[in-house]
Specification:
- This protein is mainly beta and 228 residues long.
- A twelve-stranded antiparallel beta barrel has the order 1-2-3-5-6-7-8-9-10-11-12-13.
- The chain has one helix and 13 strands, in the order H-E-E-E-E-E-E-E-E-E-E-E-E-E.
- A hairpin with a 3-residue loop joins strand 9 and strand 10.
């Protein structure tokens, strides 16, 4: 109940430009980039059934022009249990926008700055990905990433993928995935629901790439809102 109230309180405090950008599909960066001066807020809640614990990730993103957006995430907030809170500045640039040909090329970087129960001093997640919009308005995302040591494991270089399929004006079916056996290694299918002209809800289920039978699966709920 406390977790639900946190989500609802955040939804009341922040409220997404209709039908447009978010920082991620669910976990993998999306092909969307906010227009200049547009500001987007989101609150993510993931619940691990076997451990009866939740993680909370608020984020704020702003468009700065030239197909660039910057943001800040607050990662590692967990309850119950020790949090490893890490403010995380983010940068995403759509280096190529093919327009009518449907292709895009995105590069980005997240810098992890551990502030609590640190297991490393500074971490980094860098990625490059292609997006392709096909005639059915399906958007495919595929690329590669690298986490520095101890952010999600001893070190990983692998692939990230996503698919988004609108169904009408208010509903989108989507899924994304990080390959590899590490703390970010999940396949995440779900739905995106445009509740109002402002408010958007994301509901998904994270299925672990490893230790699935040992309980490595989570419910994911996200609430997003564009400030302008």
């Amino acid at each position: 109940m406390q977790s639900v109230l946190l989500v609802l309180c955040f939804a009341a405090f922040i409220a997404v430009q209709p039908g447009t950008a978010q920082e991620t599909i669910f976990n993998v960066p999306s092909g969307d980039i906010l227009d200049k001066w547009k500001v987007y807020g989101e609150f993510d809640f993931a619940y691990l059934w076997d451990a009866s614990s939740g993680t909370y990730t608020p984020r704020l993103v702003a468009g700065v022009g030239h197909k660039i957006e910057i943001g800040i995430n607050l990662n590692g907030v967990t309850s119950p249990g020790p949090s490893q809170t890490a403010p995380t500045p983010t940068l995403k640039w759509k280096a190529y926008d093919g327009g009518k040909n449907g292709w895009g090329f995105i590069i980005g970087d997240d810098v992890f700055l551990p502030a609590q129960n640190r297991s490393y001093d500074v971490g980094n997640y860098v990625y490059a990905e292609f997006t392709k919009m096909i005639k059915s308005h399906t958007r495919l995302t595929f690329g590669a990433f690298d986490f520095t040591s101890k952010v999600v494991a001893s070190g990983n270089k692998a692939g990230q993928f996503g698919i988004e399929q609108p169904v009408g004006n208010r509903l989108t079916l989507a899924a994304d995935s990080f390959t590899g056996k590490h703390s970010a290694g999940y396949f995440t299918p779900g739905v995106v629901i445009k509740l109002t002209s402002k408010l958007t809800a994301y509901t998904a289920y994270e299925i672990g790439n490893s230790d699935l039978l040992r309980g490595n699966h989570l419910l994911l709920i996200e609430v997003g809102w564009n400030f302008n």
